[in-house]
Structures are given as structure tokens and as C-alpha cells.
Design goal:
mainly alpha, two-stranded parallel sheet, Rossmann fold, 4 strands, two-stranded antiparallel ribbon, single chain, 145 residues, globular
């Protein structure tokens, strides 16, 4: 949902850009700026394209992306863990943001902190919680200001 809000903002800044929506079922839809801008409450409600899919999958859309630059407006795993970036690199498609190796590293917070510390950058002490049961979850407190 954050990705839709980001795309709405980008489409007002670059109105001539083509807008491609990657649905949760893997299909790619080319949508109009009007359709995207008319979607309300992007942080709350799912975007559902009005037209049929342009491509049945991301892989089937790659050829159409050749000779273009893709502005990645995806948040979360799909847009940040390096998988999409690696796919674009292999297909020789230009894209914005970090390369796949940097994206994978930055997505792994423990590895990022380890690299930062090895380069004598200050990092805060952390606590990694792994494999705990629901009884332990109930004992956790979150303190913030």
C-alpha cells in the first residue's frame, strides 16, 4: 500500500512516465495516471486495476522494459531485498536505486551492522530474537519515546 502512495506521488512529478502495477498474484498491469490518482486512501485500501493484465508475470514483462529505466517504487521485501534488482541486472534493464548486492546487504540488518562495525562506524547494541514461542512474546515490552 505504501508502494501505491509512492507511485501516486511519482506520477505527479513525472506525468509522462508509464505506470506498471505488479499485483499480488504476479500479474503486471499498465494503468493510467488518472486511474492511479483516483485511488483514495492508498495507505488503507488495496489498489485494484480496472483493466485486464498487460503481462501474466514479471518475467513476461521484461522484454518490454528493455531500453527503458525503471523507477522502483516498491517497498518491503519485493522492492528492497535485492531479488528484483538482480532480475533487472540479469535482463540488462536499467533501474533506480542500489544494485542487488547492496540491496541484499542493506535488507539484512545484522549483516549491515556487522559491516558498519568492521569499518569502525558506530552502531548501537542490539538484541536479536529468534525462535521464541508465544509465551515469550507476551513477556516482551516495547519502550519508545
Amino acid at each position: 500500500m505504501v508502494s501505491v502512495a509512492s507511485a501516486q506521488n511519482l506520477s505527479t512529478m513525472i506525468p509522462e512516465a508509464a505506470l506498471w502495477f505488479w499485483s499480488q498474484d504476479g500479474k503486471i498491469f499498465e494503468i493510467s495516471q488518472t486511474e492511479l490518482s483516483e485511488h483514495n486512501n492508498a495507505f488503507v485500501s488495496q489498489f485494484v486495476p480496472k483493466s485486464g493484465a498487460t503481462f501474466s508475470s514479471l518475467n513476461s514483462s521484461l522484454e518490454a522494459m528493455k531500453d527503458k529505466t525503471v523507477i522502483i517504487s516498491l517497498h518491503g521485501t519485493e522492492g528492497e531485498d535485492g531479488t528484483l534488482q538482480e532480475l533487472f541486472e540479469e535482463a540488462k534493464i536499467k533501474f533506480t536505486g542500489s544494485n542487488s548486492k547492496s540491496s541484499k546487504l542493506a535488507f539484512d540488518k545484522r549483516a549491515t551492522k556487522k559491516l558498519a562495525a568492521s569499518n569502525e562506524l558506530p552502531v548501537v547494541t542490539d538484541l536479536a530474537l529468534n525462535n521464541f514461542d508465544n509465551g515469550e512474546i507476551e513477556k516482551l515490552n516495547v519502550f519508545f519515546s
